[in-house]
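Can anyone check this?
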Amino acid sequence: MDFGDADADFTMCDLINPVPKRTRKLFSVMADYANFYRAASQVFEKTSAEYDEARRAVEDGQEQIRLAEQRKNTLRSERDMRKRKENALLAEYNSKHTILTELIKESKTNEDKRDAVFKAIKDRKEERAKLLEEIKSLQSEIEHLKKAIVDSPEELRAEADSLRANIKRLQDDCKAERQRISDNAECMKIIENVSKVLAERFTELEKLGDFQVQISLLEQDESRVKSLLNEATRRRQQTADETVRFAASVEEEVKKYERAREIYSSRLQELKTRKEQLTK
């Protein structure tokens, strides 16, 4: 009798009223099945436990990969943000540098204008001194003429008219000189304002130096982020290798299970053959 037969006729009668020969065959089959079950159950339980451990390890590896991907994306977004900030600071630095260059050129032009104004003021002062000396000489000449003897009233009148004309001309020159001096004072005020603007621009230049320091700090942060990204990539590769090894071990256990099934099938076939031989 064999449980693998399609026409097995095992009934309750075999338990209530057993036949020795039939019972011996039945017990033989049950003993073979019990022996196989003890051996196969140990292999199956061991394989199942190892498979569960491998599956948990694979799940842990996948979770680590997901976390590493998340960290990598976070680091990449932070790097992009810092890169954008760095580009913005660099653009601002370039614009400030352009403004500073223009201001330096303008300051040089203003210095040239200031030197020209100072030179003009100096020339006007020299001309004024000469005019004052000329006025003094004319006044002394007038005093001398007043003391002189008048021979002809017409000649005296003509000389007086010429002196009046000279005095008027000198007065006009003095007025023009005063106007030039006031214009030069306005130029000096403009130069002082330009100097203040230049001082403010140099202060902005110092701030740009601080921006350069911040850019260097950002570059250091970027290098640290790159190192962290490389470390995350290495860990991801290590996790992938472990996953491959776990998969290989699982496949090996499956193969062992298949071999156990084949052994069981071959043993069952041998038992059938022996049964047929015994029945004959």
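Reply from J.R.: I decoded it. The mean pLDDT is 75.
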